[in-house]
Fold:
Amino acid sequence: MLRLNGKGASPGVAVGRIKFISHTMEFLEKRLIDDPQSEIGRFEAARALAAVELGELAVSTAAKLGKESSLLFEIHAMMLDDLDYREAVITRIKGSKFSAEYAVSETAIEFAKDFSDMDVKYMQTRAADVLDVSRRVIDILIGKKRESEVQSEPVILASQDFAPSETAQFERDRTLALITIGGSTNSHTAIFARTMAIPAVIGLGESLDEKCDGQMCVVDGSSGLVILDPDEQTLNETQERLRKQKELIEELEKFRGLPATTKSGKTIKIFANIGNVKDAHLAVKNDAEGIGLFRSEFLYLEKTDYPDEETQLAAYKSVAEILGGRQVIIRTLDIGADKQAAYFKLPSEENPALGLRALRICLKNPEVFKTQLRAIYRASAFGQVAIMLPMVASPWEVIRAKEIASEVKKDLDQSQIAYDPKVPIGIMVETPAAAIISDLLAKEVDFFSIGTNDLTQYTLAVDRQNSSLDDFCDTHHEAILRLIGQTVNNAHANGIWCGICGELGADPRLAETFIEMGVDELSVTPPAILPLKKRVRELS
Ligand code: PEP
Ligand code: MG
Structure:
């Protein structure tokens, strides 16, 4: 029995055998050939087959998870078609007489390094993609079935980290848990696991490796503990915990459809945070009363150029329709800091979290902002839509944003395009400045939603991306709670409502405090909705 400690990235307990997904190229042997022409032919044939596979995956993923999730496969197909990439492989085959698979692996490693070295986060994430699509070509060349495509038994999936295209293919019913050697709690794997309610532990280090494949394993996604080769007593204890976990999930069903009302009669709305259309289905499945935060920036992050009005309209309209009349609060573009898209050509900054981001970008680029606002207003004809502005610090920013919104509405009127003229405009309170002058800001907007993730980072001066500062990141800090209380009071004094859409909203230990403060709405990840509802209904 071996105990490994990592970071709990998604709660829940699981027990099962490990399926270690090794990424082939890291273990590929150098093989030399003597017929470059036929080797180039092998490469081109494998590339063509990979393109067919990617096309099929795009179609099946779009059907299963929505169009946005399938875009990744389109990016992979584009990479395979890239002239520089093809030439780099062919040069290695011709010049160095490398086998096709070895030439692909060397090219992938070189391209991935180039991507990783770039300043822009969006380009850095492309490193994982070029490795992933190259692995696909290599697997075809060496006749290996992709692990995620042959996953038949429920297993605990392990790897260095998972590429986004891999997680998109995982079947929820066959994935007991995810464990990784590297990764951070903000990584794609962690977010995917939390949204899909799959227990996950990340950052286990090198003690987890290929030799663990097939071993029995216990995963505790809350504490971050992973036990390899558990003894009988541990297995029995885990079975007991699994039984309780199952009971809890069944018990949660009792709360479906009921309002989150305490025993003394106070009601709080429970909404969902989403990042794409697929999440909207999950929100409905998990009994969300509405969408409290649609992180629209994912529409921008998945693209290589600004998404046009029609693309955005399609996404916002779909979410509004899926929610069938329930409110959908669309946060305008929150690019910058940790969320970078190369085509924005943002300057590199000493302190990006304090830099050009979110609403600041929109106010400096009104045309980009207007395209998004037009799409949101047009979507308002199909459901109950609201607009939320991120990273506000001063009233003038809100006043200017509202002026731009009025211009957009005037344009729509002139073109006789349908929209709801009463779309509410609210702000995220996520800077200490906004919380402190919330009495002034409340006079300008229809609602507040407190973004505790950024509010904590800016109030405690703790970089949210820096995991070595975990000890200093006290999310229950009195300063944060006072700012929340003050913001709620100022909202109510001015006749508007106030919610919380940061991670703290899902913390069951604070549900009572938030209700006592008078918070009107909590917006949380879809799997956190029913547990929170249970917690609220048990409060007296
Ligand atoms: C927040 O800052 O609390 C928030 C919800 O926004 P994000 O996490 O997307 O910055
Ligand atoms: Mg934020």
Summary: The chain has a mean pLDDT of 90. The chain has three domains: 2-21+153-232, 24-147, 278-538. The longest strand covers residues 13-20. Residues 2-21+153-232 form a domain with the Glucose Oxidase; domain 1 fold (CATH 3.50.30.10).
